[in-house]
């Protein structure tokens, strides 16, 4: 059986809703083979992140070497990267092994408010990782940090995407999940601007939506689908996973992945 191989480089979420666990579930749902490089272990559940343990850079490098020298992935997705040393190690490994179809989810702070990327890691992210990416997927808050402007509406999203894509060759997806009125996402490159429209689903259980979207995009790219169609299909996947209305835990519960 010829199966596509997907790698997630991200943090572990003990509650299984976000991070590595959400990524692998999404990969399986797309019938691709999932592999992982774990950057950090979080103790978290539906009510929030309790603590974080960052793995030593050497261990991260060893995980990358093990994967790339034996089963080179057809696409890669990055999530929680914690600090500049980890970002530099990952960028160096991706460059050396010519990692392609890279989707960067620039995870900074969990929706529950816990910092998942140190403040001094921003320039490493922009200078080392973004140039390797085919698609980056900031949420509204991350797009504000990356563009330096406030985002309150769809016009602000376009301005931010323009600013962010100045320093990129690839595509930017600004996720609108935290907008008040709707959940439209913006897919933007230097030559094109497309809206992915969606009504806000009235469901508090949206833990891991960002991880799921970026993993679904990476799965589609690995399957040989172009960027635009990959993002549209991924948006549909997340939408239906939220719509399932799984209700686990006391706080913001996870999504239901379709196998
Ligand atoms: N309540 C919702 N209804 C419909 N789509 C949603 C909802 N919340 C998030 N999304 C979608 O989920 C994806 C992830 O977005 P978002 O929640 O903004 O990312 P993050 O988890 O990184 O903060 C986007 O496609 C967004 O539009
Ligand atoms: C280990 C880990 N990685 C990433 C996140 C953030 O996940 P995201 O999909 O952005 O979802 P929420 O923060 O909105 O739940 C995380 N919480 N943990």
List keywords for this structure.
259 residues; alpha/beta; UDP-N-acetylmuramoyl-L-alanine:D-glutamate ligase; 9-stranded mixed sheet; 37% helix; binds adenosine-5'-diphosphate; binds ligand LCLJCK34
Word description of this protein:
InterPro entries: HMP/HMP-P_kinase_dom, PM/HMP-P_kinase-1, Ribokinase-like. Belongs to the ThiD family. With 259 residues, the chain is α/β, with parallel strands linked by helices. The protein has one domain (5-243): Ribokinase (UDP-N-acetylmuramoyl-L-alanine:D-glutamate ligase), CATH 3.40.1190.20. Helix content is 37%, strand content 19%. The protein contains eight helices and nine strands. It has helices at residues 19-29, 57-70, 84-96, 122-129, 140-147, 154-165, 209-222, 227-243; strands spanning 5-13, 33-45, 48-54, 75-78, 102-104, 135-136, 171-174, 185-188, 193-196. It has a nine-stranded mixed beta sheet with strand order 3-2-1-4-5-6-7-8-9, sandwiched between helices. A hairpin with a 4-residue loop joins β8 (185-188) and β9 (193-196). α1 packs across α7 (209-222), α3 (84-96) runs parallel beside α4 and α5 packs across α6. The longest helix has 17 residues, at 227-243. It starts with a strand and ends in a 16-residue tail after the last helix. The mean pLDDT is 96. The protein binds adenosine-5'-diphosphate (ADP) and ligand LCLJCK34.
Q: Class, according to the CATH hierarchy?
A: Alpha Beta
CATH architecture: 3-Layer(aba) Sandwich
Low-confidence stretches: none
- Estimated helix fraction: 25-40%
Q: At the fourth CATH level, what is the homologous superfamily?
A: Ribokinase
Mean pLDDT: 96
What hetero molecules are in the model?
adenosine-5'-diphosphate, ligand LCLJCK34
Number of domains: 1
Structural class: alpha/beta
Keywords: ATP-binding, Kinase, Nucleotide-binding, Thiamine biosynthesis, Transferase
Protein name: Hydroxymethylpyrimidine/phosphomethylpyrimidine kinase
Organism: Alkalibacter saccharofermentans DSM 14828
Domain Pyridoxamine kinase/Phosphomethylpyrimidine kinase: 13-255
